[in-house]
Amino acid sequence: MHLSVEGLRVMITAGAAGIGRAIAEAFLEEGARVHVCDVDESALDAFAQAFPDARVTRADVSSVEDVDACFEQAMAWLGGLDVLINNAGIAGPTGRIEDISPQDWERTLAININGQFYCARRAVPLLKDAGGGSIINISSTAGIMGFPLRTPYAASKWAVVGFTKSLSMELGEFGIRVNAICPGAVAGPRIDRVIAADAAARGLPVETVRQSALNQNALKEFIQPESVAREALFLCSPMGRQITGQAIAVDGDTDSLRTRH
Predict the structure, then answer these.
(1) pLDDT for 148-163, tens place per residue?
(2) Exposed, middle or buried: residue 86 (CB in 10 Å: 0-12, 13-18, 19+)?
(3) What is the mean pLDDT of residues 88-106?
C-alpha cells in the first residue's frame, strides 16, 4: 500500500520531539518535504542532526510574531504548503478548578488552541494556492470526554475539535480537508509527568495512578507516538481524500468510566 505523499510540503508544529517528531519522521520516510518548528532549541538541534533533509525553526506558537516568522522561513524553502500538522500543545496544570491560577489557564489555551488558530490563518491561503491540502489538528481523548483535575487541558482540546469541524465545513469547497486526531495517553516523558502530578493532586502512589490510566483503555497499554503518526500520514494521503471534519481517536478504546481513582 503506497501512500503517495512523496513531495508533499509539510509544516509540523512542536515537531522536534514526541508525537511531532514521530509524525515528521513518518512523512520524511515517505518522501515528503518537512519543516518543523519547536520551542525547545536542544530538541531542534537533535532533530536537525538526525534529519538533515528537513528544516527547523525555533518558534512558540502562542506568539503571533513567532508563527509569522516561522511561516516566512518555511515558505522560503518549501515554496508553498500542502499539509499543516497543528501538534503543539502542553499538559497544563493539574488541580481542582478553585486552585488553578488564571495565568495557568490562559497559558494552556494560548498554546493549545490559540496556536492552532495562528498557524491555520497563515496556512489556509497557502493551501488554497496549492489547490487543496490537509490540516491535522492534534486534540486528545480529553477533547471527547471529561477529564477531572485537568480542566484547562480538556477545555482546550474540546475547542480543538470544534475548531476542526468548523474549518472542515468552511474549507471543503477549496479541497482542504481538516481532521483532528485524539490520542489517548501517549508513552513518553510527558505522560510520566502528568501521572506524577495527578498522583500528587489525589494523594495516591504514582504506580496506582499509572495502573489506573492503563486500565482505562481496552488494550491496557499506552499509545505509541508512531500510531498517531501513521494515522496522520493516512489522513493526508490520497487514501484519506474523503475523510474530513472528523475527530479520530487513537487511544486503544479509552473510557473514563472504566476506572475511577
Answers:
(1) 999 999 999 999 999 9
(2) buried
(3) 96
Using DSSP's 3-state secondary structure scheme, residue 133 falls into strand
Catalytic residue among 71, 118, 147, 153: 153
Choosing among 3.40.50.720, 3.40.1190.20, 3.40.50.2300, 3.40.50.410, the CATH entry for 9-186+224-250 is 3.40.50.720
Q: Is 118 a catalytic residue?
A: no
* Alpha carbons 183 and 156: distance in angstroms, whole number: 14
So what's the pLDDT on residue 2?
A: 63
Parse the chain into domains and list their residue ranges. Answer: 9-186+224-250
pLDDT digits (tens, 9 = 90+) for 111-145: 999 999 999 999 999 999 999 999 999 999 999 99
Question: In this structure, are residues 229 and 19 in contact, taking their beta carbons and an 8 Å threshold?
Answer: yes
Nearest CA among 32, 34, 8, 30 for reference residue 20: 34
Give the DSSP letter of residue 134: E
Determine the pLDDT at residue 256.
Answer: 63
Strands of the sheet containing 9-13, edge to edge, are 55-58, 33-38, 9-13, 83-86, 133-138, 176-183, 247-250
